[in-house]
Amino acid sequence: MSSQVFHILARKGRVVITVREDDPVLSVADTLIRHNIGGVPVVDSDGKLAGLISERVIVSALSKRGKDISSLVAKDIMLTGIPTATSDDSIYDVACRMTYSRSRHVPVLEDGKLTGLVSIGDIVKLRAENAEHEAQELQDYVTGSDHASVLPSYDQKAEKECVIT
Predict the structure, then answer these.
(1) For a pLDDT cut of 90, what percent of the chain falls above it?
(2) Which of 86, 139, 148 is nearest to 117 (CA)?
(3) According to the model, what pLDDT value does residue 38 have?
(4) Phi, psi of 85 (to 5 degrees)
(5) Mind giving me the DSSP string for 127-157?
(6) Residue 62 DSSP label
(7) Tens digit of pLDDT for each residue in 60-97?
(8) What per-residue confidence (pLDDT) applies to 13?
(9) Which segments constitute the CBS domain (predicted)?
(10) Beta pairing class for 19-20 and 105-110
(11) Is residue 109 within 8 Å of 14, Cβ to Cβ?
(12) FRET partner for 8 with CA separation of 20 to 30 A, picked from 56, 94, 146, 165?
């Protein structure tokens, strides 16, 4: 069974930190730092998605503009034409969009309204949790049924050697 975007949003929530098109770039950078996030959607005056700013976008603007960066606003540097997703999209499809667009953040839209944000970290976390859960289920199946050829052993000697201080 393939996981979908709504599985991530159910765990992390649908609250999305946003900035406005006319917010100063230094204020956007402060928002990223304050909320410990790597990217933020930019919304227009109607609250609709206009673009996205990531740490990489800010560094690129700093490299190109130097001190002048303090005079720029979000609209001046934001990425446009970014990939988006819906809550029903598969995680695999979203990961492919991220790979092909070289982006680490994908806004989630429902009927044109911003309802979430999925990061590559969210996808990795969900995939790791799913893999761990599947491994545990397989181990429980093998060791808890008549199909097991060898029962798990308890090695007291190995436990004594593994001392954590």
Answers:
(1) 65
(2) 86
(3) 95
(4) -140, 170
(5) HHHHHHHHHHHHHHHHHTSTT-SS-----HH
(6) H
(7) 999 999 989 999 999 999 999 999 999 999 999 999 99
(8) 86
(9) 10-69, 78-135
(10) unpaired
(11) no
(12) 56
Q: What is the pLDDT of residue 133?
A: 66
pLDDT digits (tens, 9 = 90+) for 19-66: 999 999 999 999 999 999 999 999 999 999 999 999 999 999 999 999
Which position has the token pair 């001190």? 67
Residue that the structure tokens 């005079």 belong to: 71
Q: What is the pTM of this model?
A: 0.76
- Supply the DSSP symbol for 71: G
**What φ, ψ does residue 108 adopt, rounded to 5°?**
-105, 125
- Per 3-state DSSP, the chain is made up of helix, strand and coil in percentages (nearest 5) of 50, 20, 30
Question: Crossing angle for the helix pair 55-65 and 25-35, nearest 10 degrees?
Answer: 150
Amino acid identity of 50? Answer: A
Nearest Cα residue to 103 out of 127, 74, 82: 82
Strand (E) or helix (H) holding 52: strand 49-54
Q: Which domains does the chain show, CATH number per domain?
A: 5-124 (3.10.580.10)
